[in-house]
Amino acid sequence: MVLGELVRLRALAPSDAESLWRWNNDPDVVRWMDAYYDQHLESVRKRLEAREPNSYADTLYGIEARKDGALVGLVRLRDARPESGCAELDLYIGEKDRWGHGYASDALRTMCRYGFDSMRLHKISLAVVTENHAAHHVYRKAGFVEEGRLRQSFHRDGRWYDQFTMGMLEGELR
Ligand SMILES: CC(C)(COP(=O)(O)OP(=O)(O)OC[C@H]1O[C@@H](n2cnc3c(N)ncnc32)[C@H](O)[C@@H]1OP(=O)(O)O)[C@@H](O)C(=O)NCCC(=O)NCCS
């Protein structure tokens, strides 16, 4: 378990399946996220049961609000390799009514601090659709900078969108 100011990051359990399934079926939540093949709730539960425990290469945490213990989202550091000191980050707050309360910012900072201090990473990278202004703002505020633009690399509702690739080096977390 990793403690932030507003959130605590903890391993997922099969009993979290209902939340994940609900979030993945909410068009507002998945608007700027990679499309996935529809899954029945029971399949999500089985996927969580079969999931390997967290490891250096793939650390997935549920984001819990410290004030009431509610699971509000997910954050993940994946593809980490000690040889390169680099990893990729994914983040989302699935509970819409919790948007705007600082949970994403705190979970992002907490996970980056964990990556730099405990995993001894040198760099964390991510991709965000250029139109996803809230997420882009949260990443910039924490210290991520744009490093490139992936042209027309995200497709939604008949339209192509660009994505920013963003990166943060150790020492740049704000
Ligand atoms: C984007 C997301 C992660 C933000 O989570 P959150 O918990 O609401 O974020 P926070 O409360 O920590 O901060 C939100 C910030 O964005 C700002 N913001 C909100 N809407 C915005 C917009 N349309 N344009 C610019 N900034 C915006 C807020 O003012 C706030 O800024 P502040 O901290 O300087 O006051 C969340 O809405 C989400 O998960 N959305 C769906 C999935 C997603 O897009 N994930 C990211 C994929 S890369």
TrEMBL record:
<dbReference type="GO" id="GO:0016747">
    <property type="term" value="F:acyltransferase activity, transferring groups other than amino-acyl groups"/>
</dbReference>
<dbReference type="Pfam" id="PF13302">
    <property type="entry name" value="Acetyltransf_3"/>
</dbReference>
<protein>
    <submittedName>
        <fullName>GNAT family acetyltransferase</fullName>
    </submittedName>
</protein>
<dbReference type="InterPro" id="IPR000182">
    <property type="entry name" value="GNAT_dom"/>
</dbReference>
<keyword id="KW-0808">Transferase</keyword>
<feature type="domain" description="N-acetyltransferase">
    <location>
        <begin position="7"/>
        <end position="167"/>
    </location>
</feature>
<dbReference type="InterPro" id="IPR016181">
    <property type="entry name" value="Acyl_CoA_acyltransferase"/>
</dbReference>
